[in-house]
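Team,

Forwarding the record for the chain on the shared tracking sheet. I've put the sequence and predicted structure together so nobody has to dig through attachments.
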Amino acid sequence: MIKPQKLNKGDTVALVSLSSGLAGESLFRHRVELGIKRLKEDFGLKVITMPNALKGIEYLDRYPEARAMDLMEAFKNPEIKAVITMIGGDDTVRLLPHIDFEVFSNNPKIFMGYSDTTVNHFMMYKAGLTSFYGPCIMAEFAENAAMHEYTKTYIKKVLFETNSSLEIAQSPEWTSEMLNWIDCTNNEISRKMISDKNGYILLQGKGKVEGRLLGGCLDVLPMLIGTELWPKADEWKGCILFLETSEEYPSPQEVKYLLRGLVAQGVIDNISGIIVGKPKDEKYFEEYKEVLIKVISQEAERKDMPILYNMNFGHNAPMCILPYGALAEIDCNEKLFCLKEAVVE
């Protein structure tokens, strides 16, 4: 994998809307402005917004090629050192016909987002570029009252430093409380935090396993399967699959179907482990665990495969950052998860 250059204070980052055009709606502009303020004040970065990123829901729905153009132009611009998504959505896959993968491999730089941005990450992965499943502008950077220190810590450690090894620790508290984004006075109110007494939960496995990270938002993966972005079964060899669920709350049945499809494709036979993010709102918390054991351990007969559950990535806050293609390790005995190489240069 090609590793992008790390960020430094004074670097320029570009903001893009690659799925929903929510950032361009006047009711939500204050969230964008707050996210930009945090990039500047908390991280010392310069910020530019790509030409189509604020054109609104209707325009960007009508013209996916405009979204793709912003992404490509941001990568081509040598002054831009990182590209961060405004927010997710549900139709990033529509950008696929308009993508030139060589633009990514020839102009490596940090790219970050999550949820429907999973599709963009698989574009980067196809181009051989490490990208970062992590915070977006309107949610994590525009967090109410202040950014979570846990989130800020992993932004700094993953994107601004060249750590040869980095433990991804469990956050002692979390939230998924939704304060109405339309009411800008909510920007000053901290969301209610919940103590996480579970920590990382080991569903099965023992010892240590290593693998390269590949995965994303479980809800989005069905749109990728069968496209040119979806890796063949043998390309999953030795990978650690990471999965998390969105505010769409996929049912345990839907999760079971997705996992069974991965078994049928040979993906589960090839991977070395699975890590799972805390379910959104902790809905189906126990049911998802039961589905994972049923499909992986019983049906696929992979009782040996480590499954680490309840991690802090995806649709709850705070969140860490997971780099695609990076070597990582699950330590079953200590219930630890670590990145085992520098992911930026």
